[in-house]
Amino acid sequence: MIPAPSGLSIRPAVDTDIDALFEICLRTAADGTDGSALFSDPRLPGYIWSVPYARFEPDFAFVLADGARAIGYVIGTPDTEAFDRRLAADWWPDIRAKVAGMVPTRPRDAMALSRIASPEASEPWLLAEYPAHMHINILPDAQSSGWGKRMIETELAALKAHGVAGVHLGVSPANDRAKGFYRHIGFEDISRDGHVLFGMKFRT
Ligand SMILES: CC(C)(COP(=O)(O)OP(=O)(O)OC[C@H]1O[C@@H](n2cnc3c(N)ncnc32)[C@H](O)[C@@H]1OP(=O)(O)O)[C@@H](O)C(=O)NCCC(=O)NCCS
Q1: How far is 204 from 194, CA to CA, in rounded Å?
Q2: What is the pLDDT of residue 113?
Q3: pTM
Q4: Ligand 1 mean position, distance from CA 145 (Å)
Q5: Ligand 1, from 153, 184, 195: best to mutate by most atoms within 8 Å of Cβ?
Q6: Pairing of strands 188-189, 196-201
Q7: How does pLDDT run across 70-117, given as a tens digit for each residue?
Q8: 48 sits in which H/E element
Q9: pLDDT one-digit tens code per residue, 160-192
Q10: Residues enclosing ligand 1, CB less than 6 A?
Q11: Distance 178 CA to ligand 1 centre (A)
Q12: Fewer C-beta within 10 Å: the chain N or C terminus?
């Protein structure tokens, strides 16, 4: 655990953080801002971008905690291909059953349902050089206080200790703030084919 004067701390995610992981994902799902109006089921973004990481990669899932409450997370996997296979077997079938019959009514329902029905596979060139990937989201009140950088450092340390060659992350094209943040903390812009991607290599 990393304590700090503010009283916030970074700690491994635990089962009781799951509701917070859904909530934080929803409240940052509109290109980094509140996506509550975009999804008719508030769990849709978390099914895709947060909760499966805590469940299947607990050694790489950390939260920013205010007391017992998680107000941010950084999550990832050292092996994107293996993670995708695990989700195909043990996650997506249950989630597809939960959303079966859902009729898209809000702006991003259809996109989320499509991602659940047909999860995106990463390009071979990306996985060859940057086999790990990660996500970070912090609720607004705790943004811009250095926690994002500290949480990224926590995730990178875990990935490096695992011996991965490099890590990538995808960014919504409209999320200029996140793009500036990743550049500032040392990620390289490796965008290609219309996908905004940042990467960091750990060894050559
Ligand atoms: C993006 C996010 C993770 C950044 O975390 P944060 O806690 O706000 O950022 P920090 O305060 O840790 O910033 C760390 C450093 O990056 C710099 N920085 C932050 N945003 C920047 C930007 N847009 N351009 C340039 N530098 C930036 C800070 O000035 C700080 O610099 P310093 O260490 O030299 O003082 C956080 O704002 C967030 O969760 N946003 C909403 C969700 C989101 O967009 N997630 C990313 C999805 S891809």
Answers
A1: 26
A2: 98
A3: 0.97
A4: 8
A5: 184
A6: antiparallel
A7: 999 999 999 999 999 999 999 999 999 999 999 999 999 999 999 999
A8: helix 44-49
A9: 999 999 999 999 999 999 999 999 999 999 999
A10: 28, 32, 136-138, 143-149, 171, 175, 177-178, 180-181, 184-185
A11: 6
A12: C
- pLDDT, tens digit, 9 for 90 and up, residues 16-48: 999 999 999 999 999 999 999 999 999 999 999
Domains of the chain and CATH, by start: 2-125+134-164 (3.40.630.30)
Distance 94 CA to ligand 1 centre (A): 34
| Helix (H/G/I), strand (E/B), else coil: 93 | helix
Assign 196 a pLDDT band (cuts: 50, 70, 90).
Answer: very high
| Best residue for ligand 1 mutational test, from 74, 136, 181 (most atoms within 8 Å of Cβ) | 181
Mean pLDDT of 50-61: 98
Q: By three-state DSSP, how is residue 72 classified?
A: strand
CA-nearest of 128, 110, 135, 138 to 166 is 128
CA separation for the pair 58, 115 (Å, rounded): 23
The DSSP code for 164 is -
Task: Look at residue 62 and give its three-state secondary structure.
Answer: strand
pLDDT at 4: 54
Which atom of ligand 1 lies closest to the CA of 138?
A: 39
User: What pLDDT, on a 0 to 100 scale, did the predictor assign at position 129?
Assistant: 96
Strands 69-77 and 62-66: antiparallel
Atom of ligand 1 minimally distant from the CA of 142: 7
Q: Which residue's CA is the nearest one to ligand 1's atom 22?
A: 180
